[in-house]
Amino acid sequence: MNINPTAMVSKQWLRDCLRAGRQDWNQWRQSYPQLSVDLSDLNLTGLDLHGYDLQGCKFSHSVLREVNLRQAILCYANFYGADLEAANLEEANCTGALFYRAVGDRITCQRATLRLANLQHAQFQYADWAWVILEQADCREANFRETDLSFVQATAADFSGSLLMAASLNEASLRFAQLCYASLEGVHAYRCNFQGANLAYAGLTRGYFARALFVNANLSHAVCRWANFRHANLQGSCCEQTDFYYSIYVRPHYSHPTKE
Asked: For 258, which DSSP code?
């Protein structure tokens, strides 16, 4: 299919180009990288966009349910308010992408890169985010309820006010992350690294934090009732007015912080 770069005004033409195949699309993007691609407000349900170059494309308010974006290049793409339910972003490069108010329940993002991405107020419930890179991502007030975030690399990410109830954070790294006022009730965070993280006023009730690392973390005013901190490392952590009522803690070689 011959792809005409002057036909940019027609979204139908762009949709036809997507369906023409990855080779033609990527060749066109490489030939005209300066062109802005607006795919907003389109219904692209079920399309196979595996490996497509969609860098900087605008998908705001588009329907992308069950779309295959595996290994796609999505750097700085705009998914504002998009519907990504059950989409596949496995191994996709979403560096700097905008997912503000996007909805992606049951999405698969295994091993995707979302470094510096904006996920404010986005919803990703019951999703698979294992091994995702979220370093310095903005996840404020995002919803990750019952999502698998095992092995996630989220150093210096901002999860302030986010919902992580019953999520899996096993062996994840949230070093120096912002988690103040976050809801982590019932989370499973075995060997999770919270070093230097800010968990002030966070809810950790009934969470499982066995062998987790809280060195120099801020847990002031956090609610940790009935949580399991067995063999967790809380050295240097701030526990001012932290509620450890009925929590489980096996004392390591250093002193356990005072329970209020």
From this structure: P
What is the chain's mean pLDDT, rounded? 93
For domain 129-260, is the CATH number 3.40.50.1980?
no
Question: Which residue, among 175, 168, 167, 177, has the nearest Cα to 138 in the 3D structure?
Answer: 177
CB atoms within 10 A of CB 20: 14
CA distances from 18 to 23, 24, 58, 154 (A): 10, 9, 14, 32
Looking at residue 80, its pLDDT comes to 98
For the chain, the structural domain boundaries read 129-260
Segment 130-142, tens digit of pLDDT: 999 999 999 999 9
Residue 18 phi/psi, 5-degree rounding, is -60, -40
* Alpha-carbon gap, residue 130 to 168, rounded angstroms: 9
Alpha-carbon separation of residue 14 from 38, 71, 89, 152 (angstroms) = 8, 20, 21, 35
